[in-house]
Hints:
- This protein is an alpha/beta fold.
- It contains 11 helices and 8 strands.
- Helix 2 packs across helix 11, helix 5 runs parallel beside helix 6 (130-152) and helix 6 runs parallel beside helix 7.
- The protein is globular and about 55 Å long.
- The two termini are 23 Å apart.
- The relative contact order is 0.14.
Amino acid sequence: MALFRNILPKRSSINTFINAIWHRQMSGDNPIQCKVAVITGGAIGIGVACAKSLLENGARGVMLGDIREKEGKELAAELNKTYGKDKALFMKCDVTKKDEFENLFKCTYQRFPTMDIVINNAGLLQDKYWPLELAVNVNGLVQGTLFGFHYMGKHGKHEKGRGGVIVNMASIYGLQQAFACPVYNGTKGFVIRFSNAMSHEYYENLTGVKVLTMCPGVTDTNMIDESSTYALEGFGDLGKLVSEGLANLPPQPASACGDCLIKMLCNGENGGIWVIEESECYKVRLPDRQTLRVCD
């Protein structure tokens, strides 16, 4: 992680800058006010935190997609009780099934007047079942990103498209080696590079859609709790090593990711890559390949 941190100013300076932007924009033009968000993996953990933060900051509504039907329906009822009738809707959605996934976007436009934010949050830390892990973490995220462009983009398939923001969920493990969960490590590195590519000005100019990346540190979710159970098989006790590696990193509540989401949206810079670690939210940038050259 040193490579990424050393090219940035001190964290305190970054946080001061981010907070200044946040307070200025929240007191004036609120980029969340009256907006509608689609959130995959929206029934638990970070998805819940993102939904709550958006509604607390004036969002018109959230469409929650997840395979966990019971938890999703209960959450939608809770959010509607807290924030107002019809603020939250839930649809059972498997991001590995294209038609089912696309229906989440179609139904969002049927129930809300607009679609402004897509958060591709569905993910697995299950190297034991790596084909499924790739299907969710890579294929599902790519599909969700493309749906986001097509349904929100000014160029897209829906007449209501006027631009928007896509937030793709990576991990600090996408910025460092994580040998005990190599498939997960690779998928999160992919998310960062894919999102960076899709944030190019070519796509923004054509569609009006921006792409941001969130890289949470160890967050209190069921993914962390279950990590040792789903380690890659055939390489000794990797499950124990996964658990130990995660335990050696500082934990944070899921709400820290919800708070950082608001700062990301208020900052508004296309292509931003944001780390949330120990409940601290800061930006990083990818190094130019020429700075990585090693001289013999």
